[in-house]
Write a structure and sequence with these properties.
Elements lengths: L10 H23 L19 H17 L8 H21 L4 H22 L2 H28 L5 H15 L3 H24 L12 H13 L7
Helix pairs in contact: 1-2, 1-3, 2-3, 3-4, 3-8, 4-5, 4-6, 5-6, 6-7, 6-8, 7-8
InterPro entries: Prepilin_IV_endopep_pep, Prepilin_peptidase/N-MTase
Pfam families: Peptidase_A24
Protein name: Prepilin type IV endopeptidase peptidase domain-containing protein
C-alpha cells in the first residue's frame, strides 16, 4: 500500500499545526540554545546558524506533514510523524553542532514511534504497514551497522549513532512504503555528497573532514515523507 497525500486535510488544521509547531519549536530552540546537550569535551564555538531556524523548521514540518497525512488512519497517523519531526529537528541541530546523536533522544524515540504507528494501524486496520515498518527498520539498521563496521576498520568518522538513527528512519518510512525508505536512503547520501563537494569547492573544508551525516539522513527522511512516490511497492 502507498499512502497518498490527504486531500481531506482542512486548511485550518494545517494552519493550526504551523502555529503549534512554531510554539513548540520555540521551546525546543531555548533548550538547544543553552547548549545543555554538550558534554565535557564538547567545548567548541556555538553553531553559526541562528537558533531561530528551529521554530521555523518545526512549524514548516508540522504544516507539511499535517497536509501530507491529515485525517488518514482516523487522524491517528499524523501525531506519529509530528512527534518524530520534533525529535528530528533536535537531532539534526545537535549532530550538526557536535557530531553526536544522543542516545537519550534516539532510544526513547523507538518505543514512542512504534506505539504511535501501532495506534494508527489499530485505527485503520492496516497491520501490514506496521509489519513492513518493523522489517524496513531492522534491515536499514543492519545495513548501517555493516557500514559502520567497515568505516571503523577504515578509520572513517561514520558512527554508531547513525546506526541507531537508521532504524528509526526505516520505521518511519517503511510504514508508508518500501519506496519511501529507498528515497530517504538515496536522498541522504546524495545530499551529504553534494554538501561535501560544495565545502571543497568553497574551500570551507578538506577531504579529511568528518561530516555530520545525521542531518542528511533526517532531511532525506522528511523529503521522502512529504513527496509521494508512485511505485509498485
Amino acid at each position: 500500500m502507498t499512502w497518498a497525500p490527504s486531500a481531506g486535510a482542512p486548511w485550518w488544521f494545517v494552519a493550526a499545526l504551523v502555529v503549534a509547531g512554531g510554539l513548540v519549536g520555540e521551546v525546543l530552540r531555548r533548550r538547544l540554545a543553552s547548549g545543555g546537550y554538550r558534554i565535557e569535551d564538547e567545548t567548541g564555538p556555538p553553531p553559526r546558524v541562528s537558533s531561530f531556524v528551529v521554530p521555523v523548521a518545526v512549524a514548516l514540518l508540522w504544516g507539511l506533514l499535517g497536509w501530507r497525512f491529515g485525517p488518514l488512519s482516523q487522524w491517528a497517523l499524523t501525531p506519529a510523524y509530528l512527534g518524530f519531526a520534533f525529535v528530528a529537528v533536535a537531532l539534526a541541530w545537535i549532530d550538526a553542532d557536535v557530531h553526536r546523536l544522543p542516545r537519550g533522544l534516539t532510544r526513547p524515540a523507538y518505543p514512542l514511534l512504534v506505539a504511535q504507528l501501532a495506534l494508527a494501524s489499530l485505527a485503520s486496520g492496516d497491520w501490514d504497514a506496521l509489519r513492513r515498518a518493523a522489517v524496513t527498520g531492522a534491515v536499514l539498521w543492519g545495513i548501517y551497522f555493516a557500514l559502520a563496521v567497515v568505516a571503523a576498520l577504515l578509520g572513517s568518522g561514520f558512527g554508531y549513532g547513525d546506526v541507531t538513527l537508521a532504524g528509526l528512519v526505516g520505521l518511519a518510512t517503511g510504514y508508508v512504503g518500501v519506496s519511501t525508505t529507498l528515497v530517504a536512503s538515496y536522498a541522504a547520501f546524495v545530499l551529504a555528497g553534494v554538501y561535501g563537494v560544495a565545502r571543497l569547492l568553497l574551500r570551507r573544508g578538506s577531504r579529511r573532514d568528518d561530516i555530520a551525516f545525521g542531518p542528511w539522513m533526517l532531511l532525506g527522511l522528511l523529503i521522502s515523507l512529504v513527496v509521494q512516490v508512485q511505485t509498485p511497492f
